Amino acid sequence: MLKNYLKIAFRNLIKRKVTSMVNLMGLSIGITLTVLLILYAQYELDYDKFHPEPEQTYRLLRMEELGNNTQIVAKTSPRIMLSLTEEFSEVESTTLLFKHWNVPLLSQEDKGFYEQDFLFADSSFFDVFGYELLLGNPETALSEPNSLVITEQMAKKYFGDKDPIGRVLRYELKYDLEITGVVKALNNVGAHFEFDFLASMPTLPKVMTLDVLTGAYNGFYSYIHFRPGTDVQSFKTRYEEWLVNRFPEERIRIQPLLDIHLRSDAISEIEGQSDIMFVRVVLIIAIVVIILATINYINSAVSTSVERLKEMGVRMVSGAFAQHIYFQFILEAILTIAIAIVISLIALYFMITPFNTMLDTSLILNPIAQWEIWLVIASLILVTAIISGMAPAIVILRMELTDVLLNVVTLGKIGYLRKGLMVFQFVVSVVLIVGAVTINRQAAFVKSKDLGFDQSEVVVVPIRDRGIHTGYESLKDDVLGIAGVTSVSRASTIPGRPYAAKYYKPEPAALDSILMNVGSIDDHYFQSLGIRMLTGTDFEFLKDELTNPVVVNETVIEAFELGDPLEALGKSMYHDGQKFMIIGVIQDFNYETLHKRIQPLVIQPGRALEDFMIVKYQGVNGDAVAKQLSALWYSTAYEQPFTYSSLSDDLASLYQSEKVWGDIGNLSMLVSVLIGALGVFGLVSLVVQKRFKEMGLRKIFGASHGNIIGIIYSEFFTILFITLLISVPSAYLLSQLWLQDFAYRIDVPIDGFVIAMALLASVTCLAVLFHTLRALAKDPINALSD
Q: What pTM did the predictor assign?
């Protein structure tokens, strides 16, 4: 019996090759994208879960009052955490992390590299976090000064196949750090911070200009791990009372470790984090895509069932019961979906690598380890099979037997249901198309927006070399001699990179102070970056004549209510009792990401051993300028290798999350449009079959092909109109919600709606033309006799 059902199922698949290919394509594409998106969402949700008892680990956060607003900062001072260990028995272990604002230079013999992922950690790091040491003792690896733990990748990079334990890396050409451990690489898991190097905390005072481990220096990431069974809510109550009594000037709260990556609104994070909203959107898209694929297959299955009315009628006359009809269609659906799953698995095998590359993740395809994900997908597929199998059976069994045998199509309410499903498909397609257009337009806006300075044709060279530092003026003259170079300057930081921050007051006795970003610059900085001076002068003329001159941006003037820029000249501002005089006001410029409003900026004159050389050029190739810079560099430097970057590339890297949004949005849009097109193909096929005799009659009575095509197309005007009414407000609100994350943003692009509706109308028109012309090519007499 089962063999007979399978034989009929395979025969129908082969007989209707085009329909079968359309069904398999829609299902396999939908399943493939759904699996990829769920794997990505699971990867994001699993951040930090590899640590031991991650639900028992918390991070300290500091609250800062800025006028009427409260600012949450991820950095705190060590004294709070150290006091907690002494006062509360619930705290099992604690650890401190510190990330220097400068990217350090590490060297070994004749090799040297700037290493972005360099952290300082205390000796209890491995008690709190679940990193495994391949070499070294986790109890002692970070206990002594000048100790350094590195990852497998860095051991290979600096030492090849040699044993790295006991070997030395030089930090900033000054301090020798001994390798005391090698960390095993993480495989396919995420953490809210990454590192390639961990230096011991006792090393930190040596590389800093002040002892930051004592006092109230708020520059550390502090973590506490509770003992098993601790009532965290009870701890919070007692902790808040203790904090008021012990440190009344501090406002510190605790944050679960598992909330950091997706649910943190703190500034000064150790690394950029994601947002739970993004994960929810990804999961919604995954569910919608599989629903679209399901709807598409159901529509196609019902359309195909109409072609099989006589076959089903003969079965019913021969004694087949309703359950036999149900079983036949469900079995055919399961068979089709099973083939689609096989195709999807093959596609996933080839797609997982480019998908990882696109989103910068390390997803793997492992159905055994990921059984929960595959159980959800299997459940969705089973439901799809049952629904898509029952739908055509219900259509046929509700018809009169004579209508079935005579091939008379009367769909009734099922027809309205199918049109409703098609409206849903169209609405989703419009929302995704408008969303993708909005994301891409915002990304283009970010790239093209006038930031208030000139980021083009600027080469940035980090300076750490004492030879460069002492011989800078000579090097600067030589660099200015390079063809195309127009100006050269130095600065402690550049747009797009972190700035130091200090609190300033308008008066010494003022109670409230405002946190402002601070940078130090050399001559010609404003000229090199094209920053407009509104009034006053820069430091080239007055830095040697005044004590503590500063240039501020317009936001500082507004924050201190100093009037217009001209009135602000000569006014004073104070930091730690020290007086600073405003000698110039520059136009506000976006020196941070466009997610943020422009913050107060204070610029002082000065050079440091660790800063950046900024080279502005025009009319020549940037790589050619860098090549000549390199030759001049090595004629002066004796410690630091030459490295450089393009300022425009540095700024573009700030918007990696928007790139991920765009990539997922574009991919989802393409899939939804493709599945929607396949759905239209099936619906139009059903409508044409239903009205085949009518079309034959109209053709006999002289109706032109154009008139008949117009009549068929008119059925879809209602679908498109309802789609327009539902999709426009939905897509607008969702796009507006996403744009709210940007302080500087575009309006929702109206032409995105035009593009979406035009695309859907075009797809519908092509489907109508294909099926109608195919039907009209047949002899109308045959249509009447069928």
A: 0.78
